[in-house]
């Protein structure tokens, strides 16, 4: 069971909860898909795109629950990244955790990730 990860602001997630689905952050909407990261990629994603930012949440989703709308495509450094070409149905979300900032402005990930 492969878990993929989405980093969102608490405001974006509150809007998703009201709507019953996550339609993506502004960058996702501009690109036409929702950007996710694998376990091996999510720390670099946090550092590169969310460095020093507080008020974030880490969303975990079982990749296979997303069906054919999930595509693994070449992105940063030639690596394959998971991209969702649909809204994220919140019923498919496995868990949501805070992604706080630790010492030096580095995000503190859940244990085991």
Tell me about this structure:
InterPro entries: DUF952 (IPR009297). This is DUF952 domain-containing protein. With 113 residues, the protein is an alpha+beta fold. It has a single domain (3-100), classed as ADP-ribosylation fold (Alpha-Beta Barrel). The protein has helices at residues 10-19, 26-31, 42-50, and strands at 3-9, 21-22, 34-35, 56-62, 70-74, 80-84, 88-89, 93-98. The strands form three sheets. Strands 1-4-8 form a three-stranded antiparallel beta sheet. A three-stranded antiparallel beta sheet has the order 3-6-5. Strands 2-7 form a two-stranded antiparallel sheet. The protein is globular. The protein starts with a strand and ends in a 15-residue tail after the last strand. 22% of the residues are buried.
Keywords:
alpha+beta, 32% strand, three-stranded antiparallel β-sheet, 113 residues, ADP-ribosylation fold
Number of helices: 3
Number of strands: 8
> How confident overall, as mean pLDDT?
95
Radius of gyration: 13 Å
- Structural class label: alpha+beta
**Unreliably modeled segments:** none
Largest sheet: 3 strands, antiparallel
CATH architecture: Alpha-Beta Barrel
CATH fold call:
ADP-ribosylation fold
């Amino acid at each position: 069971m492969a878990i993929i990860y989405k980093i969102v602001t608490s405001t974006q997630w509150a809007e998703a909860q009201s709507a019953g689905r996550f339609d993506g952050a502004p960058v996702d909407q501009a690109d036409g898909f929702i950007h996710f990261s694998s376990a091996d990629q999510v720390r670099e994603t946090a550092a590169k795109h969310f460095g020093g930012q507080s008020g974030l949440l880490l969303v975990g989703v079982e990749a296979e629950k997303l069906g054919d709308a999930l595509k693994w495509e070449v992105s940063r450094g030639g690596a394959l990244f998971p991209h969702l070409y649909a809204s994220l149905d919140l019923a498919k979300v496995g868990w949501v955790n805070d992604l706080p900032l630790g010492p030096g402005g580095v995000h503190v990930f859940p244990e085991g990730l």
